[in-house]
Amino acid sequence: MIEFDGVSRAFNGKAAVKDLSLQVAKGEFCVLLGTSGSGKSTTLKMINRLVEFDSGDIRFAGESVRQLDARTLRRRMGYAIQSIGLFPHWTVRKNIATVPVLLGWSRAQIDERIAALLALLNLDAQLLNRYPHQLSGGQQQRVGVARALAADPEVLLMDEPFGALDPVTRGVLQQEMLRIHRLSGRTIVLVTHDIDEALTLADRIVLMDNGEIVQQGRPAELLTQPKNDFVRDFFGRSEMGVRLLSLEQVGNAVRRGEWLAGEPIAAALTLRDALSQFIARRTDKLPVVDDRQQPLGVLHFGDLLQLREGLTCAG
Ligand SMILES: Nc1ncnc2c1ncn2[C@@H]1O[C@H](COP(=O)(O)OP(=O)(O)OP(=O)(O)O)[C@@H](O)[C@H]1O
Which segments constitute the ABC transporter domain (predicted)? Predict the structure, then answer.
């Protein structure tokens, strides 16, 4: 869907991105991860030509982005950023409708789309006539994502979209992005420097340093088969076990057919969340329910340890 072929970009003679080659498949959730200044944002912005590249080529659906009109290109790609970039003097409705209006959609089409986006992002219809400053940070970010998704773009580009949020809201929005990705199968490229966010969201992580890709692969691959010390250090040796747990859902480790009294946990939680529950409740067994709140089985603390070893070995 998106192909970088030996792409470089320098600012004032200093390379920001060096000879970068990368392929993002259709429907993939690709996360660009790296330290500050490693070139992630520049890489992202070159896709929709907010930043032009000096050499190499970037192809979108087989066509060089340089051959495409920049405005047309941007309308085909949703873009959401940390500072949200909502127009302050426009209502939420008008902000979300920006691209559909530019594309000449009818009022009825726009209203229908807005209703669908409100449902998708858990936003209250009462917010539509408010202005951005009358929303909480989390609501603003949701509106930012709704606006990026409004015209049903082929690709969604996101630059630290949840950066400014508290951990709880951030976690909720991450889960919503996963749901949107599952439902829509849309291609997403997201920039973050947050390792846990990358592990939670990515089909594939592209780890960057100093304008170059150091390693790319599935989250478990980077954790269990780090290519060099940089990758190992980046993911942090000491927290590796816990990070591995964050890749697996409770539902995959539950012993079905067993049941237990007590407050159940959801099968969709990660094993890392379950670990917190084991510790908080000082127990070694937790009842688990499915997404319809029906009993699914029991999660055993000991199974977590075995699974962790399994994941490490499998890598
Ligand atoms: N418009 C610009 N003018 C000059 N230098 C720039 C510009 N944009 C980026 N750079 C430089 O290019 C390098 C890569 O920046 P980039 O923003 O792509 O990194 P990043 O990995 O996204 O970092 P961060 O996580 O801090 O946003 C940095 O050294 C940065 O200072």
Answer: 2-235
